[in-house]
Design a protein that fits this description.
Elements: H1 2-38, H2 45-81, H3 84-90, H4 95-98, H5 100-137, E1 156-164, E2 169-177, E3 183-196, E4 202-216, E5 219-236
Antiparallel strand pairs: 1-2, 2-3, 3-4, 4-5
Helix pairs in contact: 1-2, 1-5, 2-5
Length: 261
C-alpha cells in the first residue's frame, strides 16, 4: 500500500503540470483561430468566458489521455533513473506489482472520461456551436470615420467631420433620418455625443447647437426648420446588440450522447 501511494504521488505533479500546459496550448490555439470573430463586436466579458468554458470540454477530452501518458513516462522514467525500480525489484516487488496502482487509477479516469464524453462533452459542444453562431450574427460596434457617411444604423445616415475616439465626441454632424417614410429629417449640429443604452438596444446621440430641416415627400412645398440648443436622437440599434439563442435546436453528431445516437 505504501508503494502504491508513493507511485501515485509521483504521478500527480506531472499529470497536473502537463494538463495545464496542454490546456494552455489548446486555449491559445482556440483564441488565435477565433480572434477575428470576437474582436470589435463589443461582446461582454461574460459571453467570452462562456464561449471559452464551453470549448474547454473538447480540450479536456484530448488533454487527459495525453497527460496520463506524460505523467506515466515521467514517473517511471524518473524512478528508473534514480534506481528506484531496481531497488524495488531487488526487494521482491515485480514490475507488474508496481503497475497495479497506476492501472487502477487509469480505470477510474477511464470511467470518468466515459461519463464526461456522454453527458458533458455533447452538451458543451452544442452550446458552443450555438453561441458561436450568435456571435457571428452580431454586427460590429458602430464605427464612424471622419468625413464619411455611415449607414450602419437602420434608417439613418450619419456624417461627422471630426470624431474623438477617446470621448466619443463628434463635431460638425449631418444626419439623415428616414424613420418616417412620409418625411425626411436632416439634422445638423455643431457637436454631439454618441453612446449605447444600457441594454444595447438603442443608440443615443445628444446633439448641441443645431438645426432640424424637415420635408414631406408628397408635399414638396412643405418645409420646416427648427433650431435647438440640445436635442436627443434615439435610434434603433438591435443589430448591434447580442442575443443568445435557445439551446433547444437540432444537434449534430458530436453533440449527441451515446443514449441519443
Amino acid at each position: 500500500m505504501l508503494i502504491d501511494r508513493y507511485i501515485l504521488k509521483n504521478h500527480l505533479l506531472p499529470f497536473i503540470f502537463s494538463s495545464f500546459t496542454l490546456i494552455a496550448v489548446f486555449l491559445l490555439q482556440f483564441l488565435m483561430k477565433f480572434a477575428d470573430r470576437l474582436v470589435g463586436k463589443g461582446l461582454g466579458t461574460w459571453v467570452i468566458v462562456k464561449l471559452i468554458s464551453y470549448n474547454l470540454a473538447w480540450m479536456v477530452v484530448l488533454v487527459v489521455p495525453m497527460s496520463v501518458l506524460v505523467s506515466t513516462l515521467m514517473t517511471f522514467g524518473a524512478m528508473a533513473q534514480n534506481n528506484e525500480v531496481a531497488v524495488l525489484k531487488s526487494s521482491g516487488v515485480s514490475l507488474y506489482r508496481m503497475m497495479i496502482a497506476p492501472f487502477l487509477a487509469a480505470l477510474v479516469i477511464t470511467y470518468g472520461l466515459i461519463q464526461f464524453n456522454n453527458n458533458v462533452y455533447p452538451n458543451a459542444n452544442h452550446a458552443a456551436r450555438i453561441l458561436l453562431q450568435d456571435i457571428s450574427k452580431k454586427k460590429p460596434t458602430l464605427s464612424l470615420v471622419p468625413g464619411v457617411f455611415s449607414n450602419e444604423v437602420k434608417n439613418h445616415s450619419i456624417l461627422a467631420k471630426e470624431v474623438d475616439p477617446n470621448s466619443n465626441e463628434l463635431k460638425f454632424l449631418t444626419i439623415y433620418d428616414y424613420t418616417d417614410p412620409q418625411k425626411v429629417n436632416i439634422i445638423t449640429a455643431e457637436r454631439g455625443n454618441i453612446y449605447f443604452s444600457k441594454d444595447q438596444s438603442k443608440l443615443i446621440m445628444d446633439l448641441f447647437e443645431g438645426e432640424i430641416h424637415q420635408t414631406v415627400r408628397l408635399q414638396r412645398d412643405t418645409y420646416r426648420k427648427m433650431l435647438f440648443k440640445k436635442h436627443r436622437l434615439t435610434m434603433d440599434a438591435e443589430n448591434f446588440s447580442f442575443k443568445q439563442s435557445s439551446f433547444d435546436q437540432q444537434r449534430g453528431d458530436r453533440e449527441l450522447g451515446a443514449a441519443e445516437m
